Each structure stands twice: as C-alpha cells, then as structure tokens.
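fyi for ur records
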Amino acid sequence: MCIRDRIMNGDTARFQFWHRDTIGAGYNFSNGIEVTFCAAP
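which gave:
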C-alpha cells in the first residue's frame, strides 16, 4: 500500500509476508491476516 493511498472507514486489507527460512526451501510465507479499518469513536 502506498503512503499516498487513503484508508477509508470500512476498508479491508489483506497481508502476507515472505521471509527467509533457514531450514527447508530457504524461504516461506507467513499466515495471512485480514484487517478491516474503522473510525475511532
């Protein structure tokens, strides 16, 4: 997500990370996470 992109109330973003793994294939992926943004009271 670019810094100039705006996050609006009700927007949903999904994240997953690629990282080095010293055992096995040399790389791996994290579990995914979904985040829904909402306005603070």
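Residues 16 and 32 are 5 Å apart (CA to CA). thats all i got for now
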